[in-house]
Amino acid sequence: xxxxxxxxxxxxxxxxxxxxxxxxxxxxxxxxxxxxxxxxxxxxxxxxxxxxxxxxxxxxxxxxxxxxxxxxxxxxxxxxxxxxxxxxxxxxxxxxxxxxxxxxxxxxxxxxxxxxxxxxxxxxxxxxxxxxxxxxxxxxxxxxxxxxxxxxxxxxxxxxxxxxxxxxxxxxxxxxxxxxxxxxxxxxxxxxxxxxxxxxxxxxxxxxxxxxxxxxxxxxxxxxxxxxxxxxxxxxxxxxxxxxxxxxxxxxxxxxxxxxxxxxxxxxxxxxxxxxxxxxx
Length: 281
Known about the structure:
Layout: H1 33-41, E1 46-50, H2 61-68, H3 73-85, H4 94-109, H5 113-135, H6 142-150, E2 157-161, H7 167-173, E3 182-185, H8 187-190, H9 197-207, E4 214-218, H10 221-231, E5 234-238, E6 267-269, H11 271-280
Parallel strand pairs: 1-2, 1-4, 2-3, 4-5, 5-6
């Protein structure tokens, strides 16, 4: 089994052996997904959902975005490249973040920051909203969960933290209608990108909960997961597509360092079991 080069430590749960009489090998530590999810949710009072890829399956969204306007293919690729470069950076304010982001995007796309800002907010993000409305839908059960939280039928407190702006509009395009009881955040809320820790701690403060009572649910361990770890929160990694999930060293130690730090405490599983238990709370 091969993992990306930057993964220095891997910790995987043992897999059951169908050849044994019971169907499970002895002393593997294997637990049924329902048992794991119930333990994970014990003591959890707040949830921070990632949006893209978590509340809806965003497979092929890049292709959909390019197909909607093929002449923008280089700009779309440039935007994704710059966003990856800004991962984990905290500029302390949205103004500074946007200035640096569009300066870098202008360099990559050989254009002015002013033009890139106009393209991003006036063309790219509105196009994303239209693409979401036409081609995507929310995962099963999330509409019901948000409705229960809004009507106070559930004791959970919920925030949604996306990697992109225009979160309210993008949620509405999927048929999800947030209210003041569902807190919404994007990079423009903080001037930072995941996995920077300050946004996670600020959301915890807005929820009026200690980090240890918050579960972050996302589909990317290197952003949602590391942000949760650094903030002292729990993390559930949503298994999607054919990706394999692993626990990676959040300290990203260099190979010459012998000692090894703590691994990320991570639960992983599929959406159906998770949303069923959340709806039962």
